[in-house]
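Continuing from yesterday's entry. The apo prediction looked reasonable, so today I'm repeating it with flavin-adenine dinucleotide included to see how the binding region is handled. Same sequence as before; SMILES copied from the compound registry.
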Amino acid sequence: MTRSTNTDYDVVIVGAGIVGATLACALAISKLRIAVVEHTQPLSAPTGDYDLRVSAITPGSRVILDGVGAWSGIDQERVCPVEQMHVWDAGGAGAIHFDSADIGEPNLAYIIENNAIRAALIERIERCSNVQLCCPRDVDTIDVADSRVTLRLTDGTQIGASVVIGADGPRSRVRQQAGIDLTVWGYAQQAIVATVTTEKSHKNTAWQRFLSTGPLAFLPLADGRCSIVWSADSEQADILLAHDDAQFLEALATAFGDRLGAVGATSARAAFPLQRAHAKRYVDSRIALIGDAAHTVHPLAGQGVNLGLLDAAVLAEVLLDADGAGRDIGSLRMLRRYERWRKGDNLAMLAVTDGLKRLFGNSMEAVARVRNLGLDVTDSIQPVKNMFMRRAAGLNGDLPRLARGLSAVSAEPR
Ligand SMILES: Cc1cc2nc3c(=O)[nH]c(=O)nc-3n(C[C@H](O)[C@H](O)[C@H](O)COP(=O)(O)OP(=O)(O)OC[C@H]3O[C@@H](n4cnc5c(N)ncnc54)[C@H](O)[C@@H]3O)c2cc1C
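Holo prediction written out below.
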């Protein structure tokens, strides 16, 4: 592991999760001196059984990970392409089906273990001479002055930079230190994750059933098993977590139905509290927030890390443009360009996932009838479905250069 020896940088990124590590790789193309402060010891790529934390990575995010040189470092045997998606409502017969062939793409997403992505990014960082990985280190205080920002780490080290990026997740210390408020809406739900075997093949398809107590997804894994994400109201989640394996599998089969036949065996389970949260501002003088430090969405649409990767790609473009033009990369004026570019898009996705969560959580009969009709009508209008698919796959919208397969520093192909 590279240790910090220098204490003066252009950019300090706090948090080497998928989002922060991607930004570091994207900026490494320049001459900027970059430090990444991470409070855990980054793990190596998983090799044995699958990790419980997996993400649906969109084709758009794949282009970004490829552009920063990390995609090829992910063990492709552990990457499962998702060609189709089936979504249906437990409170009626409404259903919708998405097929990547309808938008001329080979896949809608890829299911990958978070640690496999993160390990590929860290490996990439370690090969960049202008990036120092400082870990395990924790941020204590941040002081912003006119032209510099100073971070004091909990071990007493001081680091100076032109700009500090908070990529330190939902409980961001950078956000707190900057005094940026967060609007939080608790869902009173937990997402239970586990790896299960199914009698029938998952057919490289993501399956999601909306129950009134929360959505239940079966995501395909490369070894033929499925990773489940069962978002359940907290009381129900506590009961499910207390079950032994046989009781849990029985509850799972009842909740999901028999589309994949019997669910045979389960791994250990883990649970994550769910919330929707949005920072009032993404930037301040010499400070910017990206990824879950700026916004947290319900996992039902599998968008959290994908939004964060777009944040990272946009911020990289803004910083590299400013640096190339000889401007101050930490000035508020510069950073506001990033905020203007990303905040509206993230807010729209927060609203969509929140709306879906509430719509499907409503068990009133009239609402259920309209909801099921809506699903069927949407399913029958192909152009509307295609528009949804392209947007959710990260292929539409105001995309930064990296997400369009271009170099982060210019409009030339990589
Ligand atoms: C059950 C579940 C399923 C999900 N499925 C999907 C999915 O399919 N697709 C998708 O796109 N999203 C999904 N998400 C959302 C996704 O996991 C998050 O959006 C994503 O992990 C956010 O990445 P991040 O790098 O911004 O933050 P994090 O992953 O939280 O990383 C933050 C990093 O900062 C470090 N850190 C924190 N504090 C400090 C500090 N003070 N000093 C130094 N380092 C610090 C942490 O150790 C960590 O490495 C899911 C979420 C859940 C809960």
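Comparison notes:
- The domain at 11-81+107-184+275-361+384-404 is CATH 3.50.50.60 (FAD/NAD(P)-binding domain).
- Residues 14-20, 37-40, 55-56, 138-139, 167-169, 173, 191, 193, 229, 272, 291-292, 299, 302-306, 308 surround flavin-adenine dinucleotide (CB under 6 Å).
Will overlay with the apo model tomorrow.
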